[in-house]
Inverse folding.
């Protein structure tokens, strides 16, 4: 067994899982608060990547440093995407809050299709090159390392986001409001919590992490098109279900498991079945543990 190849696949799967985690967090937080699967979440990821590409194209002519350009592009993409996420919640989901869940689900699918076609018409159906302006780490670039600079940046950024998000939910006032809303909306309102603001904030945070993931993975792969959000969104949803939909630690764990499953499956079996491995694993988990790896049955454990 080639250990070098094994560790390459291990780190590759870790990188994939980290990106899936940034997306899966949005799915699991929204579900934990309002029990809605936001199928348009992947399109927010895609819009964030396209926004960053436009910003990079404009700033390139200013002669700015590459790192400064990508940082500005990430910030603008996150702000722009949070605007989309906030507006989407107000227009497509809030009016249906008291409607049957199927209505909100259909609305989510409709928003996904609308945003896909909106970007398709505004941009192009073709793949576009995305410059890799992520910081270059000399030791990783010069040495025969198993991990390149892009992978390292993705892993460190994702770990930082996880730490910040965990602190936000566990120790801040808005985090406590999110947990209270997740457990019992009626009691949360009676306690003086504005659940509309909590739900909007949840969409904003989820959209920001999705946009960040979109920029990072597009920089890593070097290309982008209007359809990347759909594929990534479906896989992130699978990851969230694997870990236990509604559980933040579960979303992270499910994402890592999915990333490793795809990486080792493509590395040792065949890359033609990359997407199949993910769904076979999902079916197995749902058969033996329908609530997911870390899923709980009590409402208090959702967020």
């Amino acid at each position: 067994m080639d250990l070098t190849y094994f560790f390459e696949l291990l780190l590759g799967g870790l990188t994939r899982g980290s990106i899936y985690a940034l997306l899966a967090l949005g799915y699991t937080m929204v579900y934990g608060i309002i029990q809605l699967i936001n199928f348009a979440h992947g399109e927010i990821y895609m819009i964030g990547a396209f926004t960053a590409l436009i910003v990079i194209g404009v700033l390139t002519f200013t002669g700015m440093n590459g790192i400064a350009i990508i940082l500005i592009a990430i910030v603008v993409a996150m702000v722009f995407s949070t605007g989309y996420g906030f507006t989407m919640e107000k227009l497509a989901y809030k009016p249906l809050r008291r409607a049957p869940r199927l209505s909100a689900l259909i609305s989510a699918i409709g928003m996904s299709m609308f945003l896909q076609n909106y970007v398709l018409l505004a941009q192009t159906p073709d793949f576009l090159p995305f410059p890799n302006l992520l910081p270059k780490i000399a030791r990783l670039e010069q040495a025969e390392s198993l991990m390149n600079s892009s992978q390292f940046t993705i892993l460190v950024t994702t770990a930082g986001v996880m730490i910040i998000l965990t602190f936000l939910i566990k120790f801040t006032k808005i985090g406590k409001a999110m947990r209270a809303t997740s457990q019992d909306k009626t009691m949360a309102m009676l306690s003086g919590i504005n659940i509309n603001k909590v739900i909007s904030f949840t969409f904003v945070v989820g959209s920001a992490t999705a946009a960040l993931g979109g920029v990072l993975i597009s920089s890593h792969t070097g290309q982008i098109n209007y359809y990347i959000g759909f594929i990534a969104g479906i896989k992130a949803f699978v990851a969230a279900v694997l870990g236990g939909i509604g559980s933040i630690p579960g979303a992270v764990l499910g994402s890592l498991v999915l990333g490793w499953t795809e990486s080792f499956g493509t590395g040792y079996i065949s890359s033609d079945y990359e997407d199949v491995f993910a769904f076979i694993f999902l079916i197995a988990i749902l058969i033996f543990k329908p609530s997911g790896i870390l899923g709980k049955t009590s409402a208090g454990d959702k967020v």
The first helix runs from residue 3 to 34.
